[in-house]
Design brief:
Helix content is 51%, strand content 7%. The protein has one domain (2-156). Helix 2 (69-85) packs parallel to helix 4 (118-138) and helix 3 (94-112) crosses helix 4 (118-138). It is mostly helical and 159 residues long. The two termini are 30 Å apart.
Length: 159
């Protein structure tokens, strides 16, 4: 796993450089729909739940409403690919992984007080991905087997 960790670490450095250069601005982004998966939605506006929505097995959705939803989607896809290809996230850990990235975005938004920028939003999420990688390297990445009510381990930590 050390080789995988080092590979991921280098890829995160590469992504950090892309963010610094603003390379994501030249990508084909889904600016209207944002990104959704693993109990998380990044959207330009809060989407209404369909009338037929029924509580079931899947956790409650964690919404991040931001004008930079497309840019966040670009980063989330990159992080998904990097961590998945290294075998570091799977169907069990993805809820915690993406939930923590969403929490990092929400913490940044709270701190930015409606003055958020695409670059700083992505930087906050990437910083959390690096923290997660460090926890994985030390065998300390914690997640629930099932996310009851959409709660992840990170939601229970005091910050």
């Amino acid at each position: 796993m050390d080789t995988n960790i080092e590979t991921v670490r280098q890829k995160l450095v590469d992504v950090q450089e892309e963010i610094r250069r603003g390379a994501f601005r030249f990508q084909q982004l889904d600016r209207n729909n944002g990104w959704g998966g693993a109990g998380v939605i990044f959207s330009r506006e809060r989407l209404a739940a369909p009338a037929s929505a029924v509580k079931g097995f899947y956790p409650e959705t964690k919404y991040i409403t931001t004008p930079h939803a497309g840019e966040a989607g670009w980063l989330l896809n990159r992080l998904r690919d990097i961590f998945s290809e290294a075998g570091l996230i799977d169907s069990c850990t993805k809820i915690e992984f993406f939930g923590r990235l969403a929490n990092a975005a929400l913490r940044y938004q709270k701190q930015a007080r409606r003055n958020e920028t695409d670059t700083l939003l992505l930087a906050a999420m990437l910083a959390e991905a690096k923290v997660i990688l460090g926890e994985m390297e030390k065998g300390k990445f914690a997640c629930f087997m099932v996310a009851p009510g959409g709660v992840i381990v990170d939601d229970l930590l005091k910050r």
